[in-house]
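User: My instructor asked us to take a sequence, write out its structure as tokens, and then describe one feature of it. I'm not sure where to start. Here is the sequence I was given:
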Amino acid sequence: MSRSFEENLALYAQLAVREGLNLAPGQELIIAADIVSAPFVRLVVAEAYRAGAKNVEILWNDPEITLTRYRDGSEEAMNYAPLWLIDGITRAHRENTARLGILSADPALLAEVDPERVATSSRVVSAAKKEMSELITDFAFNWCVIGAAAPGWASRVFPDMDTADAVAKLWDLIFSTSRVLEPDPIAAWSAHCGHLARRVEMLNEARFMALHFRGPGTDLRVGLVDDHLWAGARGTSTSGITCSPNIPTEEVFTMPHRGRVDGYVSSTKALSLRGQIVDGIRVEFVNGEVVQAKAAKGEETLQRLISTDEGARRLGEVALVPNSAKVAQTNTLFLNTLYDENAASHIALGGSYGENLAGGEHLSEAEKLERGANDSMIHVDWMIGSGEVDVDGIKPDGTVVPLMRSGEWV
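Assistant: Let's start with the prediction itself. The structure tokens for your sequence are:
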């Protein structure tokens, strides 16, 4: 069966609203998107109103204006966050307004900007958005992140192609990895989520104490919190709405203990971080904390990231992804974490997700920390899995259970 680009785009909008957000009748929705994605955003808005949305608001971003701010803005501008805007958005999410993030930014947009300016602004904005971030990590409302092809991004992924061809190619991969090209995308997505749910159930029954990653440049033991919960594909917000936070998704993930990570680990894919590219990462952990961090490219950006706060030097997530996953099978470096993290097993520096701790929604931040969760203004995933990496699960009695060999589930 062959469909036109326009038909696939409409189905993708439907998938985002119906499966990604599972938008409830009468619910409000905030969409954050680059202005270049306006034609697609209009399709999503129409689908949201057909699903019964009470109101849809768009937070537009213009990459050129973003670049202008970093390039020409004063130091005062770098140290400013519009609390009047952030407080309003936070209130909306506190009152169960859904959120859809549509990612299309040029991954190297800020490559020529002083990393210090980027780090300063990121730190200030992250601090201002702390409550909003906690609402997201605690799954207080239904949210979803998807991608949309755009010239800047597509040209970075396919630098040897004509821009129009690169955009078309990127759209094809977005549709493919999101199951939009299947005869029934909604049914295909639901079946995929069911497969991941069975993997989650198996891991939760196993009750591993730790995971051990081994491969070139990697010998890392990631201890897990005692009451950890694995999650993947779908989650249920505290407001009772089950949604798919990431489209695409191939991961199952859980919570590391902030003080039980030891060893060294090397990245297997480049990372797009704060509009700059970081590659060749090698990090060493002792008692959960980064004691040494290097990168072949973008090391200054990496160092500023882990200096954001105390929690930025510790892990908030560990995730397992097989090489046979749809994203991995594209053999494409997307330079976008939403996609690249779903092509390889990964870890995340920074804050934990409350859904990965049993009873976490009822605990204070201090109680979560005491249980081993991590708190930070950042949450940055980077890829450590490949066809050369093995993963073992370690039981409390020391029993070692092979989980992955050469990047595939045993």
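For the description part of your assignment, you could build on this observation: The chain has a mean pLDDT of 96. Try explaining in your own words what that tells you about the chain.
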